[in-house]
Amino acid sequence: MPWLYRAMRMEFRNKPWGLLPTMTVAIYLGELLFAMTLATILLAASALELSTAIALFCCGLVSWTLAEYVTHRFVLHGVAPVQHGMHHARPRDGIDRIFWQIWLAFTVVYLTAGGAVLAGVLVAYAWYLSLHYCAHHNPVLLPASLLKHHLDHHKFANRNYGVTTKVWDRVFGTMLR
């Protein structure tokens, strides 16, 4: 994903500390690289037949998009609206921590569904990290329709919960019309 590296490199410019990344870049890029590396290892180590591994990998991709939608809609807007509201109010503010809960959930996915499914989830998670980062820090790199979908969510918080896809907003009737 060279376009993401270019986007993150733009944050390095004109910083008094030179080439040191901001905490936001370090966390997004670190998690993205770790997720992609782990997905590659899981697929390489799989003893599954190729067609089975591909099918399970695709199940992981789809599972992530649904989990992303459900978590965003019901947890971030329902259970933790104050904390998530800060992101809506100041979307360009830096991220200064890794959310350990997501990695705990990934462990549960691995233990219950296996490595091929987790590999798909991790690749979809890396895609989510890339899209969400670019939506707030370098929007010119995103497809216009996905960027508009996400930015509309910041204007109308009860619509457009999907970040990586609009599918679940269509399915559950939360797409802004």
Terminal Cα span? 31 Å
Number of helices: 8
Largest sheet: none
Question: Percentage of helical residues?
Answer: over 70%
What would you call the shape? globular
Strand coverage percent: under 5%
Mean residue pLDDT: 84
Using only C-alpha atoms, the radius of gyration works out to 17 Å
Walk me through this protein's architecture:
The chain is mostly helical. The chain has one domain. Helix content is 71%, strand content 0%. The protein has 8 helices and no strands. Helix 3 crosses helix 4 and helix 5 runs antiparallel to helix 6. The longest helix has 30 residues. It is globular, with a radius of gyration of 17 Å. The chain starts with a helix and ends in a 6-residue tail after the last helix.
Please render the helix and strand layout as text.
Elements: H1 2-10, H2 23-45, H3 50-79, H4 81-89, H5 100-113, H6 115-137, H7 144-155, H8 167-171
Helix pairs in contact: 2-6, 3-4, 3-6, 5-6
Supply database-style keywords.
single chain; 177 residues; mainly alpha; 71% helix; 0% strand
Structure in a nutshell:
The protein has about 180 residues and is an all-alpha fold.
